[in-house]
Amino acid sequence: MSQIKVMLIDDELEFTSIFSERLILRNFDVIAVNKVEDAFTKLRETLPDVILLDLKMPGMNGIEMLKIMRRFDPTIEIIIITGHALGLDKEEAVSMGAFDRLLKPLDINEVIKTIEQAYKKKNLEQRFLKNNTL
Predict the structure, then answer these.
(1) CA-based, 20 to 30 A from 12: which of 52, 54, 71, 127?
(2) Is 128 exposed, middle or buried (0-12, 13-18, 19+ CB in 10 A)?
(3) Contact 99, 118 (CB under 8 A)
(4) Domains of the chain by range and CATH?
(5) Is the Cβ–Cβ distance between 75 and 125 less than 8 Å?
(6) Which of 54, 50, 57 is nearest to 112 (CA)?
């Protein structure tokens, strides 16, 4: 499997620093951002395969960001991360276009498994679209 490009978007500097390092050590290509405006700039520059998106961001909530990112590139898989179990359940997140919703504190093995599943789904969808447009 090729290196998966992951964008981690969370306003908690310490969290993004530590968690992105943990993902890098597991051979992921990680772009970490802490501000909404930086997230959209990096999205245009790097086109990640999977996004880990915090639900609560200053200036714009994760659901609004998810909708904009989906319009920008519907093939990017977005995993909502939140520390608030009551804020958004998995079914709600998926119905809004997320691949999944994970609760903080994040379990690295669960995150890796979810990222890999999202990446496989993205690749299958891209191959399907490619085969049906030929």
Answers:
(1) 71
(2) exposed
(3) yes
(4) 5-133 (3.40.50.2300)
(5) yes
(6) 50
**Are 101 and 79 contacting, i.e. CB atoms less than 8 angstroms apart?**
yes
Give dist(CA 104, CA 95) in Å, integer: 21
The pTM of this model reads 0.92
Instruction: For residue 117, count other CB atoms closer than 10 A to its CB.
Output: 15
CA 115/CA 53 separation, integer angstroms: 12
- State both tokens at 49: 């395969």
- Closest residue by Cα to residue 7 from 58, 45, 60, 57: 45
Which pLDDT tens digit goes with each residue over 53-90?
999 999 998 899 999 999 999 889 999 999 887 777 88
Cα distances (angstroms) measured from residue 119 to each of 38, 61, 115, 123, 124: 23, 24, 6, 6, 9
